[in-house]
Amino acid sequence: MKTYKNISLQRWCAIALLSTTLISSSCKKSFLNVDPQGQQPATQFWVSEGDATKAVFAIYANLRTWENVAFPALAIESTGSDEADKGSTPTDAAFFDLYDIFTVTSTEGSLQSFWTGQYQNINLCNQVLENVPGISMDDALKSRYLAEAKFVRAYSYFRLVRAYGDVPLRLNVPKNATEYNIPRTDKATVYAQIEKDLTEAAAVLPPNYPSTDVGRATKGAALGLHAKVALYQKKFADVLTYTNQVMGLGYDLFPDFEKGFRTQNENNVESLFEVQAEMIPGNKDASNSQYSQVQGVAGVPEGGWGFNTPSTVLAAAFEPGDPRRDATILFKGETTPQGDKIPTTTPNDMYNQKSYVPFGLYVSGYNQGAQQNIRVLRFADVLLMNAEAANETGNPTLALSSLNRVRARARGGNATILPNVTTTDQTALRTAIYKERQVELALESDRYFDVIRQGRGAEVFGPKGWKANKNEVWPVPNIEIERSGGLLTQNTGYR
Question: Does CATH number 1.25.40.390 belong to domain 8-204+467-495?
Fold first, then answer.
């Protein structure tokens, strides 16, 4: 029996409601037992450095909730692209098809869930930004916590603005009923706030952490996300500035593309930011990520539900011999490098190998793959952004250097495949960079929005039903419009 919405203790700990707030680093039941209601009153919170620490932990914990990494995120950020199909069986979670053929309307539930998930993240960040400055604590740690909150707030607003366009820009915790209902803010203003948050975060965040804090937002994460935000606005000179800075911080490509996505190599030299997930023995509530579970091999107890499967378009996109094809796609009947045989009886021909967790790591009673981190931003992406920006600003030499660095890692020591791109023609080089993004970043929630920002939506997605001047964004959830009393407006072409 699939649990499509796993509302766990961990999630409720992370949401941190405005009226009575309890934020725990691990959401242990012993910590909850602080008063008869199991809640820590807001009047007793935001007092100590420990409170600040718990609040920031809650921000990170919320990033792996259902709304952020499972069905809602896959529907909004992946299914509409040409690289992924719904998967599973035809009647299972059939709503995904509405996104795949662009017939979704504003009442479909995942629109609301994704929207809610991002604003939950933003709410947690705003609470930290509003309350932590008043706590007497180590000044350096305080500054870092505020920078981490700004990074996550920027990340969540970026996900919102590219999905819905104009969205309400909330930068504070509402103090009264009149402050809850605010209109949509134009996306240019939202982007400006995202950039402000990332600039301020990058100025404070360290380039790395000791082992006890690995996984927190870093300077490289803020600069890399800022580069992507600039890319979506076609601010190519800024993209070059930020990517060049990241390229000077010591990041590199992990030598083995396939192994870079396995759990033992999480937070490696290529990783700028990952959503942290962990299998914690004896604590199912904290082991709550369903990212791998919903995409795992169907029909295998250790696998998962079989959604968001690679498409035949993606399978055909790789050049002959490109090792990334077999490292990205689990094919029916194959044996993985970790020794798992994918049954020939499974309902889908292909599965997402980047979310795959070897079957031997499954623990009965837990979500399959609960320990798999979600890769948000990799150095390969930074190099490809650098290549694109360099090409658009008339520097083909730099563009080729960054592009071919990604291709060299992919081919490994096999000089007979994936030869260096040599063209300096801007149009041809642009096409090569777009293609490289398609295969290098496949199934990492970029393809759909990449194609749209490149102005190729009708060309690539038109056969699926995509329409210009409508499908550049998804509809605003109807329930949000109703709750606002009509203050929020709907995107053009939707009902």
Answer: yes
Average pLDDT of the segment spanning 430-440: 98
Give the Cα separation of 323 and 408 in Å (integer): 11
* pLDDT tens-digit series, residues 28-43: 323 223 333 345 666 6
Closest C-alpha to 64, from 27, 101, 17: 27
According to DSSP, residue 304 is labeled B
What is the rounded distance in angstroms from the CA atom of residue 288 to the CA atom of residue 367? 7
The overall average pLDDT reported for the chain is 92
Q: How confident is the model at residue 25 (pLDDT cuts 50, 70, 90)?
A: very low
277 burial type by CB count under 10 A (0-12 exposed, 13-18 middle, 19+ buried): buried
User: 489: which 2 tokens?
Assistant: 């407006």
Range(s) of the chain covered by CATH 1.25.40.390: 8-204+467-495
Give the closest residue to 409 by CA, choosing from 257, 270, 271, 250.
257
Amino acid 42: pLDDT: 60
The pTM for the full model equals 0.92
* Residue 90 to residue 344: CA distance in whole angstroms: 18
Which class for 200: exposed (0-12), middle (13-18), buried (19 or more C-beta within 10 A)?
middle
Distance CA 484, CA 63 (A): 26
Q: Calculate mean pLDDT across residues 405-416.
A: 96
* CA 392 vs CA 309, 395, 425, 458: distances in Å: 33, 8, 11, 22
Q: List pLDDT tens digits, range 382-395.
A: 999 999 999 999 99
Closest CA to 369 of 280, 429, 279, 450: 279
Scan for tokens 């250790």, then name that residue: 302
Token pair for 234: 């076609």
